[in-house]
Amino acid sequence: MAKKRILITGATSGFGRGVALALAPRHHVTAAGETWPQVRALRNDAESDNVKLDVIKLDLLDDIDIRHATNVCAGVDVLVLNAGIQESGAIADIPIERMRRSFDINLFGHLQLVQAILPSMLTRKRGKIVWLSSVAGLQPVPFLGAYSATKHAIEAVAGAMRLELAPLGIKVATVAPGIYRTGFNDTGAESMDQWRDPKTAMVPVPDLALALKIQSDPQEMIDAMVEVIPEDHHPYRTMLPDLLVAETKAAQARAWSERL
Q1: pLDDT digit string (tens) for 39-90?
Q2: 180 is annotated as an active-site residue
């Protein structure tokens, strides 16, 4: 396989970090992190492991960071849109500003980055964009509705981009993880504690800690991403664990038959 230039957002933790470190020995990988402490920590870890990895600061809500990433990653072959936040809580109660911020980071910030980097891909008539979706983007998850909404939007955007860019030589793919033990879901479950008051909330929320107990080892998802990201030919959607594929298809089918 030819060596690829790969930019991964949100690469200082979770899936992004694991994938960046695993791909770096065989490809030119730029790992992006939101804050300077995250950037320095990953640089130190890569150096300790003797892994050659470029690490840059990229806050998706910062126009200067996006311009810098576009400049230093000119000619990137694969853009992996992995950064994201998860807000929990009932849709009826979640503060609108938290909902907006979820879309700003998970979708709009990434879309701005795509629009900045895409021209160089179009000039070369090749390149690939990989959107990190989620099982929550294919079947709504109660009390994670804000997060689900951003991932449903990503599914729509990625699907449209795939059809629009294919004739121009650009590939688009999605990766849809289930519930994995990266710490992301744990912080997401706790996020509503910042604003939710059980005494005034309109909708009761169950104990989300129960769902966190069934999280899977993230290594299988990291391994799948490491295989798919640099490849030129693979399925449009990569979803794991395998059990969730059948469950998701069944949930989508039920939406056509269930009655109020």
Answers
A1: 999 999 999 999 999 999 999 999 999 999 999 999 999 999 999 999 999 9
A2: no
Structural contact between residues 55 and 42, judged by C-beta atoms closer than 8 angstroms? yes
Which is catalytic among the residues 15, 131, 143, 147? 147
As a whole number of angstroms, the distance between CA 34 and CA 49 comes to: 22
Q: Are 109 and 120 in contact (CB under 8 A)?
A: no
DSSP characters over 170-209: EEEEEEEE-SBSSSHHHHHHHGGGGT--TTT-SS----TH
DSSP designation for 215: P
Q: What are phi and psi for residue 101, nearest 5 degrees?
A: -65, -35
d(CA 29, CA 24): 5
- The domain made up of 5-254 has a fold known as Rossmann fold (3.40.50)
Q: Is 159 helix (H, G, I), strand (E, B) or coil?
A: helix
Output b/e per residue, 156-180; b: 16+ Cβ within 10 A: ebbeebbeebeeeebbbbbbbbbbb
Q: The tokens of 257 are what?
A: 């038959």
CA gyration radius, the chain = 18
pLDDT tens digits, one per residue of 101-131: 999 999 999 999 999 999 999 999 999 999 9
Structure tokens at 78: 């694969």
